[in-house]
Amino acid sequence: MLRPARLLHPFFFLLLLFWSCWTLNVVVSEPQTNLLYTACSPFYEFVVSNFTIFSENLNATFRDLRDQVKDQSKHFATSQRGDQNNPASSLFQCRDYLSIADCLACFDVAAVAIRNCSAGTHGSRVVYDGCFLRYEVSTFFSETTSFNAVSCGNRSASGEATEFTSAAQKLLTNLRTTTPTVSGFYAASKTQVPNNGPTIYAFAQCIETITQSACLDCLNAGDNNMQTCLPNSDGRAYAAGCFIRYSTSSFFPDNQTINTIPLAKQGSSNNKGAIIGGVVGAAAVVLVLLGLFVWIKRPKKPQSVPRDDIPGASKLKAPEAYNYRDLKLATKNFSDENKLGEGGFGAVYKGTLKNGKVVAVKKLTVRKSNRMEEEFESEVKLISNVHHRNLTRLLGCCSKGDERILVYEYMKNTSLDRFLFGKRRGFLTWKQRYDIIVGTARGLTYLHEEFHVRIIHRDIKTNNILLDDDFQPRIADFGLARLLPENKSHVSTRLAGTLGYTAPEYAIHGQLSEKADVFSYGVVILEIISGKRSEELKVHGHDEGEFLLQKAWKLYEKNMHLELVDKTLDPNDYDEEEVKKVIEIGLLCTQAYADIRPTMSEVVVLLQNKDLSENRKPTMPLLIEAH
What residue ranges in 344-392 does DSSP mark as E strands? Predict the structure, then answer.
């Protein structure tokens, strides 16, 4: 019986291959099982009463997911099993351009990989190019940002980098705007780069159990993260709630594409049509004129949400609560040997948890008040829901008596100041410095303009910029300012005689806006380029010394920008015109008047452009002399 089967096997294989090609528009079957991300939920977050029963329930959900895909031809499925003691929830999604056969193949690979977590793990997730599988002991179907990551290709796209980046950004913008409006929350599109450049293919998708607005928010964050990939030939951004990808190689059939431009503009067109229809119906010329006046005077961009007003705060996920005894053990009783540093917000210690995970433990110096507990919980809950690749991730918190402790992801390379002014001075290349400048700008853009609550950092400086394993920047200590004691300020009080990082309107008049962060960021740019501290005084003979901002401005006026560059940098390592442009952007950010400083989103665009336009030249900063 076995021998005929072996003889017929090649025939059936060829037949299957033919069938696969035919069903996919002559595209060879490919389940796209390139692994992008895998993670296991910390075992201490939840405890199931009987792990054997939990495993049985989990297996039942996986069978249910597979059956839904196979029997109902679904690309998205959820399943739940078990009672309140041992519940299991699982979710599966494959890309909608895949055939059901490829969808099932991707599921089978994911179902094996997701079990690689250690025994007793109550949750895990795996992301492939072709699919996403997740399970937890708790219900998570409405989550969008419990993880947020990006994966960039290492090959530059062919052709002009600026043209490619511009074309890709337009395609991705239209795609992320369109996707939430399409039934099923998925869309594929493509565009050709001008001047016979390559074709860019892009796809976006959200899980179907979130709202339209949550889908848009998730894709906005993913698109922002993926800007770091450009102008490389491909990139992917993925989170708990969405997936977005672009590539110069086709990864979906041509018949799956849609024209996203009309759909992206549809909302605004409908609004205008409604206004015009109402005016015509009323036949009131006065209302037409009034409507036009209102339209012309409308704000150029939505107003930022005040820090004291937190809409949707009830929907925020609470941070992980850590045990004080565990943190004390992890940091060796908060010993000096584990101390990483100390700043205005408190001391930071390196800690190793019971499961071996290394974390940064920050003991806060917070103000004492009757509302302290409520304010601490509110602020920390907000911060723990901020997810961006250029911001440090808050893992959880701990309250014990008057102690308030935050637990962050650990950055092995510590803070930027140590690479600019400390023992590791001269280590960073120009490319690394430039990436840090760009990444920090993107992180601040997210805090100011993209998170649903506006967050002004107030203390941007080099020791609040941490570096991950790839020397990408992570802004630390955002959102903590309101927790400080009344009599303690993280703003330098030594302004007379030092420019520091503090915007003049904030230090002198107490006027706080996002532009205070922009000023501080501009100072950081100059420090990164020069390798000098902002307040470092240099005296040559009997000549009066200059502070960094003052020196940078005088060199700019003389068109001698490059005299500012860190002497540890190899001149062959950087493009002189690019360095000059970045110095000018730093000076744009430190202009005397807050209103004429660029926003952080404008800074990101300026950094990506080859040159500054003539109307974006910096004006003199406010140079405060020592007395």
Answer: 346-352, 358-364
d(CA 507, CA 622): 12
In this predicted model, what pLDDT tens digit does every residue of 148-175 receive, in sequence order? 888 888 888 887 888 999 999 999 999 9
* Active-site entry in 417, 459, 477, 517: 459
Closest CA to 316 of 371, 367, 387, 364: 387
Compute the C-alpha angle 616/617/623, nearest 5°.
Answer: 125
Domain ranges of the chain: 26-136, 153-263, 319-410, 414-627
- Give residue-wise pLDDT tens across range 302-335: 333 333 333 333 446 677 889 999 999 999 999 9
Nearest residue to 393 via CA among 381, 407, 379? 407
pLDDT digits (tens, 9 = 90+) for 74-133: 999 999 998 777 889 999 999 999 999 999 999 999 999 998 876 667 889 999 999 999
Residues 6+ apart with CB under 8 A from 230: 164, 165, 168, 169
Active site residue 459: yes
**DSSP notation for 126-181:** EEESSEEEEEESS--TT-S-SSEEEEE-SSBPSS-HHHHHHHHHHHHHHHHHHGGG
472 neighbors 439 (Cβ within 8 angstroms): yes
* Cα distance between residue 517 and residue 523, in whole Å: 10
Report the predicted TM-score, pTM, of the whole model to 2 decimal places. 0.52
DSSP state of 447: I
Q: Which residue has the tokens 């400083």?
A: 597
Grade residue 343 by pLDDT with cuts at 50, 70 and 90.
low
Helix (H, G, I), strand (E, B) or coil at 572: helix
The architecture (CATH level 2) of 26-136 comes to 2-Layer Sandwich (3.30)
Domain covering 319-410 in this structure, CATH number: 3.30.200.20
Location of structure tokens 């949707």: 312
